[in-house]
User: Fold this.
Amino acid sequence: MRHRVKGKKLRRDSAQRKALLRSLVTSFLEKERIRTTLAKAKATRPIAEKMITLAKKNSLHSRRLALRFIYKREVVKKLFSDIGPRFSERPGGYTRIIKIGPRAGDGAEMAFLELVGTEFKKKEKKKKAAKKAKEVAKSKR
Assistant:
């Protein structure tokens, strides 16, 4: 029976699991979108949402609680100055998980974990960017 058992073990002992989740949450809040396995995304999501809820409170105590979990001070600064105010009116559900299919190497189900309201533009290919740079250089001559 699994009464009141919360979270997944992710085939790691408790110290490894805590380190993994801390680094995933830190990277997620830093980049606002990460690509990981579906199981890790589902385990990371509630912790990331708790950190955003702390940022909405914007008190010294909540900042110290966030610093206890997040590795980088710059990420905590970004969380409290940018991400927290962005979701101040939203009552929850700050993240979304988008399934992207199996990984080529081992077939693990992959997913994007991203903040709601964060739209990503596809990056231009290097050839197109180089071509534009050449055109600009020719026009300046």
Remarks:
- The mean pLDDT is 91.
- The radius of gyration is 19 Å.
- DSSP finds five helices and three strands in the chain.
- The domain at 14-140 is CATH 3.90.1030.10 (50s Ribosomal Protein L17; Chain: A,).
